[in-house]
Structures are given as C-alpha cells and as structure tokens.
Amino acid sequence: MRAAFATGFDDADPLAVLTIGEAPEPTPLDGWAVVEVRASALNHHDLWSLRGVGLREEQLPMILGCDAAGVGPDGNDVVVYPVVYTEKGDFSILSEYYQGTVAERVTVPAYNLVPKPAELSFAEAACLPTAWLTAYRMLTTRGRLEADGAVLVQGAGGGVATAAVLIAKALGARVYATSRDAGKREKIAALGATALEAGARLPERVDVVIETVGEATFEHSMKAAKLGGRIVVSGATSGHLPKVNLRRVFALQLEILGTSMGTPEELADLMALMARTGVRPIIDSVVPFSDARKAFEHLHSGDIFGKVVIDHTA
Predict the structure, then answer these.
(1) Is this prediction's pTM over 0.85?
(2) Which long-range contacts (CB under 8 A, 24 or more apart) does 277-281 make?
(3) DSSP state of 158
(4) For the segment 83-107, what is each residue's pLDDT rounded down to a tens digit?
(5) Are 220 and 231 in contact (CB under 8 A)?
(6) Of the candidates 179, 223, 190, 219, which has an alpha carbon nearest to the alpha carbon of residue 205?
(7) 312, 306, 205, 293: which is closest to 17 by C-alpha?
(8) What's phi and psi for 63, nearest 5 deg?
(9) CB atoms closer than 10 angstroms to residue 270
C-alpha cells in the first residue's frame, strides 16, 4: 500500500528523510481493526517525527500521521481516535509507537473507531482527533466553560488555538483572542472573536484561558482570569518555565490545569456539537495523496492558516 513514512532523522532538513512509497500492509492484533483511510490531516508532530523527536532508529520506517477518517471493517464511516496504549502500559499517539495514518490503511484497536456523523465530510472529520479534540477538552472537561462565559485564547492562529475560538463560539461563549501578527488577528476576528494584540487589556476578566504559548503569555493569562478562573494549558511553544505569581493564584482562587488530547467519548461529543451547530474546521488546503510530499512541504513552510489535509482517494 502507498504511505508516507520517515526513513531517517534530519533536524535541519526533515523533508530529506520523508519517503512517499510502498509500505507493508497492516497486520491487526487481536481486538484491532483495519480502516480504509479516506482523508488524513497533518500536524507539526509529523515534522518533529522526521527530526527524530519521539522516535528511535529501530522503529524506522515509521508511517507518519495521527489524524484520519475512513471506512471501518463493517463498512461504516469512522474517525480514528489516535491515542493507543502500548504493550508496556504507556500511551502514545499513532506514528510514535504504532504506525500512523498517512497510508491507504491503518490498524488500531476497535475501541478507537468513533462513528463519523454524516454531516461531516471525510476531510473535515480528519482534522479533529488531535488539535480539535485537545481544544474541546480544554474548554469543556477541564475548563468547565458555561454557555454565557468568557474565554481568552492566547496565540490565536495555531491549530489548537484556532479550534478553541470556533468551539467556544459554538458553545455560546464570548471569545477574546490574541496574536502578535496583524494578519492572524484579522482572520481570527472574521471567525467571531474579539482579536487583540498580545498582552492587551481585555474588556472583562474571563472564566477560562486557553494557554498553548507558555512563558511569553502566561503572566497576561493570569491577569486576565477572573476570581475562580481556570487557566488550561496544553502547550508551551514559547517556553515552559514562566514566572507564576502565587499571591494572585491564591487570592483569586485560580486553577492552573494541564491537559493533553481527550477521550473517544469526548471526540464523539465534539462531532455531535459540530453536526448540531454547523461549526467546521478551517482547512488551509486539500492535497491529493499523489502529491503528498507537497502537503508536507506546505506545512513545513509555515505559511498556513488551518489544517493541511491529504485526500487518500486521489
């Protein structure tokens, strides 16, 4: 079967070790299922894999990709939940320990197959299992956002942050979003958020802060949170050791909550929300599998807004 996989590691030029070619057919374990992939979506995780982050030489070649939607063994449309527990009891996402999704077929535990609503296309559904699921869990399970609440999304323009803006709007919240980039602020404003420069004073303090940036924004996140507010962290792209004003933490009874990914049930709830409200992921581009390398090149360029999707039917 055709697939995109890492054949080595190159920190300076990750695309140099990307191969698009033939890979062995997946052999499912007991209780696992084979999915015929119709669409997959790329993440920066794929570029980090090509750089050697999270992989060892003995695991190569490793098929890339965490996100996919396709057809299950019973003929039903499914979305692939990407978190899998290893034989040692640890958990990882596809393409770290088990082969990934940028292939004609992928095998995962049957538990990882989540029914795809008919309202979502394969391309739209393929965007959801990593960034969108993380954002949904940050807002709901961890952030406990109420319909009339207020949210600050730091670093809007990134995958999780953009998803958080759209999901929070669908949940009925007032949404503020920051970015240093004027072009990204304009795009985020078009999605319905109040777009602000990084560090700007908000019109109100918020119930939930979505924090994926880290050191550069964390002081602002703490100042923006209201009494009893929740700062939910799923990343630290600017650094992971911010200064924390503990007097503000206890005086305002703030909660600083960590999270990563979500559950299959939360993925199903996310898709139900999308089917009900009409919210859809921002798709930067859809690239046919025959030009899969161009999809990776586009992601690597950094000049994207939204998800890069690979159409496995073309």
Answers:
(1) yes
(2) 277/170, 279/166, 279/167, 279/169, 279/170, 280/120, 280/124, 280/166, 281/124, 281/127, 281/128, 281/132, 281/163, 281/166, 281/306, 281/307
(3) B
(4) 998 777 788 999 999 999 999 999 9
(5) no
(6) 223
(7) 293
(8) -70, 130
(9) 26
pLDDT at residue 159, as a whole number: 87
The pair of structure tokens assigned to 157 is 């323009």
Residues whose CB is less than 8 angstroms from the CB of residue 116 and which lie 6 or more positions away in sequence, other chains included: 69, 77, 78, 79, 122, 125, 271
Give the Cα separation of 254 and 219 in Å (integer).
13
Per-position DSSP letters for 86-137, written without gaps between them: -TTS-EEETTTSS--SSBSEEEEEGGGEEEPPTTS-HHHHHTIIIIIHHHHH
The predicted-structure confidence for 166-189, as pLDDT tens digits, reads as follows 999 999 999 999 999 999 999 999
In whole angstroms, what separates CA 275 from the centre of its chain? Answer: 19
Q: How many of the other CB atoms lie within 10 Å of CB of 197?
A: 11
For residue 61, whether the previous peptide bond is cis, meaning omega lies within 30 degrees of 0, is yes
Structure token digits, residue 126: 């393929």
Q: How many residues does the chain have?
A: 314
DSSP state of 24: P
Residue with tokens 């949404």: 175
Residue 313, exposed/middle/buried by CB under 10 A (0-12, 13-18, 19+)? exposed
Question: In which residue are the tokens 């990934």 written?
Answer: 100
> And the tokens for 314?
């073309």
Buried residues in 69-78 as b, exposed as e (16+ CB within 10 A): bbbbeeeebb
